[in-house]
Design brief:
The complex is a heterodimer of chains A (520) and B (132). By secondary structure, chain A is mostly helical. Chain A contains 22 helices and six strands. The chains are: A mainly alpha (520), B mainly beta (132).
């Protein structure tokens, strides 16, 4: 009797092809261009979708298996963290404010990324690109969920973490990440890829994740570190997608090059402005510091980035227009941002403080050319006021940049004593910008940005008051009413760390007192 | 500065003519006016305040400025007669009896003022530090 011939199992590559691209078909009831309208209108020309190199080589089946394993490990750590009250092991309660910034400003971006990639996963004509986008969409949703779960334990013990989704849609500083991402996913699919996969995830992502995750490691936050490890392998896949997609577009047609260059210019600058929040977190909010923003910028942007753009020059791509200005700004933006949050801390949803003496020394050492010269004196002035029980808060609302929506706090690239102003007129109205590059983003697509909702203007329109308030006369404390609308508990979720419940509670807990959380 | 032309690379599947969000009719008959005391960086950014076009310039100086900038240690020493006023980059003479509108200001104008002898962040305070 002959042994039955076993059917040969498919190898990795054919199996992958069978389970992804081969599942696609060309439509016949409706023409393909009507079924896939979105990947044509931006002007990007694709001649052969089969040239798309799949960066992942994962089938859905292996994807589930692989992610499921990671999930099991992550949730075991998160559970153990909660059961052993590991929030008591962090370096200092000030650290939790970095997590507040993360859950308020970064986590919602994961959800937006999920939506953006789901859109791409439907609308690319090429099946390979659709599959890659679908998997990333699932990744991003999973990141959103695991971040919420990892950080939720802190919400039981600290203020300022109870309503991040509502804040993301309303609060002034969170309009910086929100407008960034809404700009990206209201663009066409190729611009979205250039914005998120390439400019953000490939060029800048290390500057976002490394500071937060190493910050967590240095400050005893095991839950967040474990999330970081769990997300890391996904992030490297996303970075691969970022570089593959840009090369694919560039290789398809020379007419694509100037369009992509303009997108790289725009999205590098938008990403850089967004990272101002991370720069501040890194230099001011971590009780145990990892490295300065300037060092991180030099390592991850200057050296990696210049090699990247050298590599892309064979396609006719040069470094982004704002590159040199971003490099010059590395000495300034974290100090400018902390000064801003310090004075508007009563209108935010986390605490701020004046750096301690040794922390000021660290800042002098890391920023030998700028900290003592330009920034130390204002912090010392505020420390003196605080000592006299006159903690200073700025009571009037700031002017914002029409594009990045950051308060106009950036100084001229060649003069740190002067605010940088740019402006222009469009259809009878004036528009103001923080920089040449934000202005250029406007001049390239004015119809898109005239409809920006700037949080300060929204307040003056009366769009941010609770129903029981007359927007024309909001009473003696408009900021209090706006906070009520935002759902921020004034004086509890915000203000100076020194007088916070967070500080008092943490001191009592680590002192061994078994007391309930104040302020709930 | 305000004459630069736009190119409009914006692409859309259909006609797309959104309204501007912040034109003057949204602010209860006020204009939004931006105000910046040059070189005084204790205030992280210029202010944005809603003001009636008929507001006398003297009221802006006498009533509003102390509210906005009064906590700066140099504020008391300001000599308003010697202060230089700019509508964005264009210098103008302030007439305290006349309205904002009379000065050629309008919705979303930026008023910058410069106080000679009080130069905040430009002044050396010794030990390699400058002021704020």
């Amino acid at each position: 009797m002959e042994t039955p011939v076993r059917k040969k199992k498919l190898g990795l590559k054919p199996r992958y092809t069978a389970m992804t691209r081969d599942l696609a078909w060309n439509t016949t009831y409706q023409p393909m261009e009507k079924v896939f309208p979105y990947d044509r209108y931006e002007g990007i020309k694709i001649h052969d979708w089969d040239k798309w190199e799949d960066p992942f080589r994962l089938t859905m089946e292996s994807y589930w298996k692989y992610q499921g394993e990671k999930e099991k490990k992550l949730y075991a750590v998160i559970d153990a963290f909660a059961q052993t009250n590991s929030h008591l092991a962090i370096s200092d309660a000030r650290y939790v404010n970095a997590l507040k910034l993360f859950i308020q400003g970064v986590t919602p971006l994961e959800y937006y990324a999920h939506r953006g990639f789901a859109h791409l996963g439907r609308h690319f004509t090429g099946a390979g690109a659709r599959v890659a986008a679908q998997m990333q969409s699932v990744d991003e949703l999973r990141h959103y969920q695991t971040e919420v779960h990892a950080i939720s334990h802190y919400n039981k013990h600290f203020n300022g973490m109870h309503d991040p989704v509502r804040w993301y849609d309303n609060v002034w500083y969170l309009s910086v990440p929100k407008s960034f991402f809404e700009d990206a996913f209201s663009s066409g699919p190729f611009e979205f890829l250039t914005a998120i996969s390439f400019s953000f995830e490939y060029v800048l992502t290390n500057l976002l994740f490394v500071p937060f995750m190493s910050g967590a490691a240095h400050n005893g936050d095991l839950a967040t570190v474990t999330f970081g490890f769990s997300a890391q392998s996904d992030e490297s896949r996303h970075m691969t997608l970022g570089i593959e997609c840009i090369k694919f577009m560039l290789e398809q047609d020379p007419d694509n090059v100037p369009i992509i260059q303009r997108w790289i210019d725009k999205w590098f600058w938008r990403g850089f402005r967004l990272l101002t929040l991370v720069a501040m977190m890194q230099d001011y909010m971590l009780p145990k510091r990892v490295m300065s923003w300037k060092e991180a910028w030099e390592m991850y942007a200057e050296s990696n980035g210049s090699a990247l753009f050298k590599d892309l020059s064979r396609y006719g791509i040069r470094e982004p227009k704002g590159w040199k200005e971003a490099c010059l700004a590395k000495d300034h933006i974290s100090h400018q941002a902390w000064s801003t949050f310090y004075q508007y801390s009563h209108a935010a949803s986390f605490h701020t403080w004046i750096p301690k003496k040794n922390e000021m020394q660290w800042l002098s050492k890391k920023y030998p050319d700028t900290f003592d010269k330009h920034y130390r004196s204002r912090f010392e002035h505020w420390r003196e006021l605080h000592k006299q029980d006159e903690r200073w808060f700025n009571q009037y609302l700031p002017m914002l940049c029409q594009i990045c929506q950051v308060p106009m706090m950036f100084t001229e690239p060649d003069d740190p004593t002067m605010i940088s102003f740019r402006e222009m007129e469009y259809k009878g109205d004036k528009y103001h910008f923080c920089s040449d590059h934000c202005k250029e983003i406007f001049t390239n697509e004015p119809r898109k940005y005239v409809q920006a909702l700037l949080p300060v203007h929204q307040i003056y329109k009366g769009a941010c008051y609770p129903d029981d308030i007359n927007p024309e006369s909001p009473g003696d404390s408009p900021i209090r009413e706006v906070l009520r609308y935002y759902g921020v508990n004034g004086g509890q979720d915000n203000g100076d760390f020194d007088s916070s419940h967070d500080k008092q509670n943490f001191a009592r807990w680590i002192g061994g007192e078994n007391v309930k959380m104040e302020g709930r | 500065m305000t004459t630069q032309k736009t190119v409009d690379f914006l692409k859309s599947l259909d006609t797309y003519e959104p309204d501007a969000s912040d034109n003057a009719d949204h602010f209860y008959n006020n204009w939004l006016i931006y105000i910046c005391w040059e070189n005084h960086l204790m205030y992280c950014a210029p202010f944005c305040v809603p003001l009636p076009p008929s507001l006398p310039f003297g009221a802006l100086v006498g009533d509003l400025m102390p509210e906005l900038y009064g906590e700066h240690p140099e504020f008391e020493q300001i000599d308003w007669q010697r202060t230089k006023w700019f509508d964005s980059d264009k210098q103008f003479r302030a007439d305290f009896g006349k309205s904002l509108e009379h000065h050629g200001l309008r919705h979303k104008s930026l008023i910058r003022f410069n106080t000679p002898a009080l130069e905040g962040s430009r002044v050396s305070k010794g030990a390699g530090q400058q002021g704020f």
